[in-house]
Design a protein that fits this description.
- By secondary structure, this protein is α/β, with parallel strands linked by helices.
- It has 3 domains: 1-117 and 297-403, Isopropylmalate Dehydrogenase, CATH 3.40.718.10; 119-140 and 182-283, Isopropylmalate Dehydrogenase; 142-179, no CATH class.
- Helices cover 45% and strands 21% of the residues.
- The strands form 5 sheets. Strands 4-2-5-16-15-6-7-14-12-13 form a 10-stranded mixed sheet, with helices on both faces. It has a two-stranded parallel ribbon with strand order 1-3. A two-stranded antiparallel sheet has the order 8-11.
- It is globular and about 75 Å long.
- The N and C termini lie close together (10 Å).
- The chain binds NADP nicotinamide-adenine-dinucleotide phosphate (NAP) and magnesium ion (MG).
- NADP nicotinamide-adenine-dinucleotide phosphate (NAP) binds next to α10.
């Protein structure tokens, strides 16, 4: 069999624990036999991040800016327990946070729909993609406990020393206060990433905030989206046959529940955090979600939405059998290969990515799946496979498809 040739390297970011084990099996069984893989490999496993003082994470993000497409394995974000476990020099920052800050991107997450894994909301027929703004608001807020009577003000001091202030509240008794912010450039990047992704995937874009109550803060989000849309995207949306519309967050939630799916829902940071967990559990599981970071300049990083599945890894180290779902990691690979194919004009690579996804879905729909899916499927008499056998079964289906 002739392997598919690539033109530009894919940035490959390896990771940790159980997903690192799956990464190698996926490459050996599902990628390398079919694609003459051109990749620039970065080992983001915690040991190597520690060895390189986390330089490898930065280098991998710069390489992504250079080449345009990356595929990333799940990685450990160290906490105190991990510092001890891996004897770390420092509590290194979240690689996803570092990469997101360098690429200035927005994360888009969508469920992978399979017959037999039915959404709880019965009218959802197509995926609903959540785009979450990844900067500011309550995640970068300053807070204070107010011990007793007194007043709280917001004060802005300009560089020339002039000030402007507004009363938050005159307290008669104890209370609490919070000050949060966002920056115009970040909201603009968020908007452009959303408009580009909508065009890319030919889906209508929804955006919702609480601008009727928050007349300066949320209203600014609404205005920035609207101005950029009118100035830069309206014509392209019309040509592509898609729409952008803004509505109030309460109205959006009500409409989402009654919709058939098949659109992108852009959310402010907090709304995106909460709503993406609601959508992923209503659609099935985190192991059946795709996740891609898109920068406003059109750089893409594909990954799984779940973590490194630590509990399964320790079973694996103990020599016990695991049944870890590799679907999200396989879709990270297919997404990245398809994008590489689109950017470099390699139709065979795009077709291969489609076939890999269809083979994965087909394997599950034929009743062969990992334990997490077997627990929630409506299919009967399913075969529960271990981590490796599930991937090998996908390979069989893929080879049949490819003839
Ligand atoms: P997790 O790895 O997502 O796993 C939590 C639980 O969800 C697992 O124990 C398992 O449940 C289930 N699960 C998740 N993915 C699964 C899969 N592919 N197949 C089957 N079951 C799956 O979250 P965590 O255990 O909280 O985090 C582990 C490490 O991942 C942490 O060090 C964290 O920093 C890191 N993390 C990385 C990323 C990323 O790189 N994008 C994201 C989140 C977390 P059962 O045990 O019940 O089977
Ligand atoms: Mg959350």
């Amino acid at each position: 069999m002739i392997k598919i040739k690539m033109k530009t390297p894919l940035v490959e970011m390896d990771g940790d624990e159980m997903t690192r084990i799956l990464w190698k099996i996926i490459k050996d069984e599902l990628i390398l036999p079919f694609v003459d893989l051109k990749s620039e490999y970065y080992d983001l496993g915690l040991e190597n991040r520690n060895k390189t003082d986390d330089k490898v994470t930065y280098d991998s993000a710069y390489a992504t800016q250079k080449y345009g497409v990356a595929v990333k394995c799940a990685t450990i974000t160290p906490n105190a327990a991990r510092v001890e476990e891996y004897d770390l020099k420092e509590m290194w920052k979240s690689p996803n946070g570092t990469i997101r800050a360098i690429l200035d991107g927005t994360v888009f997450r969508a469920p992978i729909i399979v017959k037999g894994i039915e959404p709880c909301v019965k009218n959802w027929k197509s995926p609903i993609t959540i785009a979450r703004h990844a900067y500011g608001d309550v995640y970068k807020a300053s807070e204070m406990k107010i011990p007793g009577p007194g007043k709280v003000e917001l004060v802005y001091t300009a560089e020339d020393g002039s000030t402007e202030s507004v009363l938050v509240h005159k307290f008669d008794s104890a209370g609490i206060v919070q000050g949060m912010h966002n920056v115009k450039s970040s909201i603009e990047s968020f908007a452009r990433s959303c408009f580009n992704y909508a065009l890319d995937t030919r889906q209508t874009l929804w955006f919702a905030t609480k601008d009727t109550i928050s007349k300066k803060y949320d209203h600014t989000f609404k205005d920035i989206f609207n101005d950029i849309y009118e100035a830069e995207y309206k014509d392209r949306f019309t040509k592509a046959g898609i729409e952008y519309f803004y509505t109030l967050i309460d109205d959006a939630v009500a409409r989402v529940m009654k919709s058939e799916g098949g659109f992108i829902w852009a959310c402010k940071n907090y709304d995106g955090d909460v709503m993406s967990d609601m959508l992923s559990s209503a659609f099935g599981s985190l192991a059946m979600m795709t996740s891609v970071l898109v920068s406003p300049s059109g750089v893409y990083e594909y990954e799984a939405a779940h973590g490194t599945v630590q509990r399964h890894y320790y079973k694996h180290l103990n020599g016990e059998e695991t049944s870890t779902n590799s679907v999200a990691t396989i879709f990270a690979w297919s997404g990245a290969l398809r994008k590489r194919g689109e950017l470099d004009n390699i139709p065979e690579l795009i077709e291969f990515a489609d076939n890999l996804e269809k083979a994965t879905i087909g394997t599950i729909e034929s009743g062969k799946m990992t334990k997490d899916l077997a627990l929630i499927t409506t299919l009967e008499d399913v075969a529960v496979l271990n981590s490796e056998d599930f991937i090998k079964e996908i390979r069989n289906t893929l080879e049949e498809r490819l003839g």
